[in-house]
Amino acid sequence: MKKRRSNFQGMKINPSRFHRSQLIFYILLVPFSILMLLPIVFIFNHAFKPIGELFAYPPRFFVRQPTFDNFIELGRITSSSGVPFSRYILNSLFVTLLGVGAAILITSLSAYGLSKLKFKGKKFLFEVNTIALMFVPIAVQIPRYLIIAQSGLIDSYLGHILPVIVLPVAMFLLKQFIDQTPNELIESAKIDGASEMEIFFKIIFPIILPAIATVGILSFQVLWNDVTTSILYINDESKRTLAFFMMSLTSLQGNTVAGQGMAAAASLIMFIPNLTLFIFLQSRVMNTMAHSGIK
Amino acid sequence: MQYVLSNTLRFALIVGPFGYIMAFLLAWMLAQIPKIPRTILAIILYSPSLTLGVAMAAMWRIIFSGDANGYLNAILLSNNIILEPIQFLSSPQYLMTIMIIVSLWSSMGVGFLAMLAGVLNIDQTLYEAAYVDGIKNRTQEILYITLPSMKPQLLFGAVMAVVTTFQAGMIGVQLAGSNPTPQYAGQLIVNHIEDFGFIRYMMGYAAAISVVLLLIVYALSKITFRVLGDKS
To answer: When comparing pLDDT for A2 and A103, which is higher?
Structure first.
């Protein structure tokens, strides 16, 4: 028993250092991760393959002579289209940044309300959110279009943002996390004279930061990869987003072998921002609430 | 329709529970190792979900491609396991299996992230107290401490698993390249809605089906709420 105690730091959940007993987890996790990673590695390699290697038989997994041909080809096609490439990137960045900020603010505030405040119809509102979460997006496409059209948002940037910023998933996730925060904390803050807004921003927000980071990643993915808004609500080519442009390129070229490399290059360009943001926010997700000294 | 319903159920019954259990086990295992390797492995495990959409389907199409240039075919051919390339994506007997593999591969999504954060958020002193009180091994640790302490995240993960598996549908069409999929082999309920609503323009029928789907998902998630939700 005494020995077990002394090893506790290395054995427990979220250990601070390596311990022999952890070896089994590495043995299980590492091969599995490699399996999960293979397709990503593949797309990286495919993007840099010269045309000869794309046709090669037997096909090779790893690239032999990496070139930027696919990217140059992509650039050539994009420069011949009417709208400059940078315009799509700016559109995407603008829409995504604004959307992520709005999504975090809206979902976290409403989650706090549904979790901790007391008012009539609270249960009903949460039920509405759950049902919204379950509705198949394709089934609501037409009503959505009608709403967007009648509010005059066709061809405006808001048409990109508004339909996607209210994420029932994110609201549900945040509510689950806020449920875990102790009520005593809020009560003692109230006794000290804090308003609801102060409680939310100064107490709740820091505690649920890991969940907020998750929502940030989620909403970024939704907005950055979204093509339906560009297709349905935007007729003006210069207001469409990068995701739409990449999709139209790959669906035109992706079916031929020669187009495969370019499709891979295009998806790599779409993938990199996702990955960097995730790596950047990952440490936040991993940061435990234990640091805040509560619970 | 008879294909669609049985396909959807089969797909959901395999992908849903397996994806869910896998997500919990992986999140739990990741919590057992120190921070830096954990971060790296978590990024790798989550990366398939970062590449949503068409791009990934295009890549799987190359791997399972029907001619000898497809990677799987090339490997099987060169090892003399098969003599002729198999038309993986257009033959009904393989399409479903491939769809399940691809979906499981990309199922470490937001539910997985939530569970990871949930496992890590459990108070350390709970474990210490439990060991003092006589818990002996990790199985007991999971049963008595880990699972009860992360119920909200488990509920979230379960509901997400139900919702995403029943709403999955794009994957089969993207892999096979057509809607309906060959001999309805990979036809899920969402494809059915799209097929009737936007290809055959039988809007009323499509709307009726989407209401049925909503009812199925709603009933299932009510059950998960009952099992995992707070009693209060």
So the answer is: A103
B-chain residues within 8 Å CB-CB of A169? 110, 160
The CATH number of the domain where A152 resides is what? 1.10.3720.10
Asked if A57 and B69 come within 8 Å (Cβ–Cβ), the reply is yes
- Domain hosting A28: range is 23-67
Residues in chain A closer than 8 A to B47 (CB atoms):
36-37, 40, 275, 278
Q: How far is CA B12 from CA B108, B144, B186, B217, in A?
A: 15, 29, 12, 11
ipTM of the complex as predicted: 0.75
Q: Is the pLDDT of residue B231 over 60?
A: no
Task: Say whether B221 and A137 touch across the interface (CB within 8 A).
Answer: no
Q: What is the CATH number for B162?
A: 1.10.3720.10
What is the structure's pLDDT at B162? Answer: 85
Contact, A9 vs A15, CB < 8 A?
yes
Residue closest to A104 by CA, chosen among A173, A157, A159, A153: A173
Q: Report the predicted TM-score, pTM, of the whole model to 2 decimal places.
A: 0.78
When pLDDT is cut at 50, 70 and 90, the band that residue B167 belongs to is confident
- Chain A partners of B34 at a C-beta cutoff of 8 Å? 15-18, 22
Residue A240 CA neighbour count, 13 Å, CB half: 21
Domain that holds residue B82: 2-228
